[in-house]
Sequence to fold (1156 residues):
Amino acid sequence: MYRSHTNGELRLKNVNTEVTLCGWVQKSRDLGAMTFVDLRDRYGITQLVFGENQSEMAKDLGREDVIQIKGTVIERESKNKKIPTGEIEITVTELTVLNKSKTPPFTIEDETDGGEELRMQYRYLDLRRKPLQENLKLRHKLSIEIRKYLDSIDFFEIETPYLIKSTPEGARDFVVPSRMNPNQFYALPQSPQTFKQLLMVGGFDKYYQIVRCFRDEDLRADRQPEFTQIDCEMAFVDQEDILNTFEGMMDYLFKKVKGITLDKFPRMDYATAMEQYGSDKPDIRFGMTFNYINDVAQNKGFQIFDDAEAVIAIVAEDCSTYTRKELDKLVDFVKRPQVGAKGLIYVKCNEDGTFKSSADKFYNQEDLKAWADKCNAKAGDLILVLSGDKATIQNQMNVLRLHLGNELGLRNPNKYAPLWVYDFPLLEWDEDSKRYHAMHHPFTSPKKEDMHLLDSAPGEVRANAYDLVMNGTETGGGSIRIHDKATQALMLKHLGFSEEEANAQFGFLMDAFEYGAPPHGGIALGFDRLCALFGGQETIRDFVAFPKNNSGRDVMIDSPSPISKEQLDELYLDTKPA
Amino acid sequence: MYRSHTNGELRLKNVNTEVTLCGWVQKSRDLGAMTFVDLRDRYGITQLVFGENQSEMAKDLGREDVIQIKGTVIERESKNKKIPTGEIEITVTELTVLNKSKTPPFTIEDETDGGEELRMQYRYLDLRRKPLQENLKLRHKLSIEIRKYLDSIDFFEIETPYLIKSTPEGARDFVVPSRMNPNQFYALPQSPQTFKQLLMVGGFDKYYQIVRCFRDEDLRADRQPEFTQIDCEMAFVDQEDILNTFEGMMDYLFKKVKGITLDKFPRMDYATAMEQYGSDKPDIRFGMTFNYINDVAQNKGFQIFDDAEAVIAIVAEDCSTYTRKELDKLVDFVKRPQVGAKGLIYVKCNEDGTFKSSADKFYNQEDLKAWADKCNAKAGDLILVLSGDKATIQNQMNVLRLHLGNELGLRNPNKYAPLWVYDFPLLEWDEDSKRYHAMHHPFTSPKKEDMHLLDSAPGEVRANAYDLVMNGTETGGGSIRIHDKATQALMLKHLGFSEEEANAQFGFLMDAFEYGAPPHGGIALGFDRLCALFGGQETIRDFVAFPKNNSGRDVMIDSPSPISKEQLDELYLDTKPA
Fold:
């Protein structure tokens, strides 16, 4: 036993106890006759006192040295109310330096002076910082509670394989050459989708797994090539059952981990979400929904509006006092290439009942009053208007709305607004490949009442698919699956698979559907993202113990890296110059 | 809601309840006026009765059809005591066939008529069988309880990356080509060894993870290229702390999952295990330990013994009545190439106090009495003797001992005999590569008191390494690690790494050791094997949902498989003919 107690547990009641402690030297203050050392571990900080006769032994201690001390707990004279051990300190009688530390390349403090890349390289030091310790503790806690909840309602966690088969649908696979099967490759799973469906065919009824998934995508900020998913599937259920089950899980987690009681989650179909928010993952922590003002804004001689498919207005409450400069900044914002709007029209609803617009040339006070009425804008509000192609404008207005939400402090990270979005389109047109792709995945079932549109208007077919949205972020998504061979074959045909390709890729699944596959469906939640959400943060990187950088590199272990000629030969592979 | 109840929950108290049930048709008996159907799901079997007016609708039901029924619970006339629902049945009023099933290629019964390969191909059907359902349920239960235990003593589960770096030490790695980093590769982890050590450097103190590991080995029976490990590490601990912690975990699991209270685990050092059992994983459910009888067996003119380094005897209790034929079979057994003995000498200790030996020519009754005394053999026992090179004979005798243990019914699968084996050698000589390999792994610390032998007699250096053995199987293994750069560098040097190679491969770890690495150690337990052990079975394959066959293939999804030219090009790879 290296220690009798941790550095987080000693209190006044332990005074006079002989203790042995271990940990890292957080800081050392040499006051001549006495030296004070803050000793840190995962559990907290305890103050050590090296008295007159002991001060000598403490004098060589440096930051991050690992030490073991023996001593006696005494009451502090000047208590520190900021830490739980602040009422006591330890008079040290024996010191053993277990391991010296070089001076760390950045400070091990809540706010560190280390840059991103340096902290990645010395991740093991960054992990000592309290914010990261807390993040990983939260992650552990969440995983424990998720399992507790699902176990309590008869889910089994079942492990599915990581060495599976490459499929052309979806994102790019990471592949793994097989030595025993020359010139053949496994793929790492983008999700255990087909396996969880086979578990339903296998009678397992309620499955989950907290599981790693892999996508070889060009990494955007805050995407990792490997990520963790809470993967779930149920048999003999309809959409309602799944929504209720996982709403129950989220309720449980918020209560257990955050002490927050959530209201019943609102639900919104995809069409409404797009119409009102221009997004399939609306942040409903604030309003500012879309108003379509074509009828009051068109045919007044303003060409830009007159030519537009849609004229969409949002209302920024109490913003009529925006200065010219502030308004110009908004115009600049929407004109940035990332947003791509041509311009922005505003209407100030002045406190005195008058209106001031950037299109005063075309609209009189009565016209603008009609706009305000249409938008339910009141005196003191600011109306912002974009026009053009409907889908494009919805998208641009969504970006502007979220921007204003941030500007106006309407997106409180400590407020949680969950939302179910359902009835997603089954297919979406891909301009690059000139064909329809599955919006969710090829195993999602079309809504029965839309099946007749599959040939005539494939883009209009809705799917039994749903997303769990939280504060404007997609937290999870799922669907009721196809469970019969005929529908699955039809779906693959519509996705451009020949019968031969369909059988080569998904024959095993369609075969399985012929042996008594039950109706089933499921959901997958992004676990890294969920952790960040519960931690009240935007980026997932600091909720992953050992993340990779934006080039998919682990800069700490320097991976990926070349392998030996012998390894390549054994795998019957040659590399080609890039 | 597809169902109001499962097929395992209805009892007499539910009589007269209207229910909706779903499941698979286990069997159907058409008695003319009535048809009885056994409806099966994960939870059990419920008997359905289609009465006179309903019989018609049941007539087309086939095995494994998925159906939904509505009906009323009634008391059975002839009760079935074998199943929990055996006191009731359901009179059916409505039947919906949710999905027809083709006739399955093998019977979905506890004892199936399907061969291994066929069952692998239709794994989703095999998984419907009760033994496999029970196995995966046990696996789930074990994983829940393991986490509960470790969580209760402040371990955090922390996920480590799957895309890591290839290392030459240990088994062969599976590698993953990187598209974004041309001609560079990730490797899949054989274990999270270095990462869990870095977590200790990072201050996480108590880590665990139930984690997939990968080894590209030529597969022996019952080995999988991917397997699951309970991976643990602790800081500020010595060997004793780790043994106690994980003995506590095993105690907890046996109590929780099997209702068995285990005694304190015995401990045995490696040298003793080899001396007494000829194995580093002795099955101590039975005795039959080794007796070294050189002093009484040599110098009596029996050349074979006289020339031998070791003459080892074991005693098979109450086996003096073995027939000539039975003894010949034992001789044949040890002469098989897999065992490789030249011959086997026996001594029958007859009930009348006389001895009968296969070496009577050289040994008189008094000589044999001395053997018997030396071995503590009593009248009625059978002594079996092998001789030759000590290490070889220990190994052969171990095989014979286990064989006899099986023959004599001494290896009861419902008896559990755990054992800690400790003080393993640090290094073992490899004849092929003519160098020392790390017996455990390169991060295991040598025993301080043996350090001086590292140059002079490296094979004699003992390590702070230990195995948890259960019923003759290695269930887990671990060690106290090296935590300073100098020792780690020395160790790598002894393993044949140049300084350059050592830095390229493990520089990050040795760097980390310079920034205040705490003393630490850990253990990893094979989870698949643990499940089989708790299930009282020898093979792990049926405790893995989707196992691969002995060529590393998943015959169900037909993987590995070729990938497209485009995929290879994107990865800057060419395949070479095998």
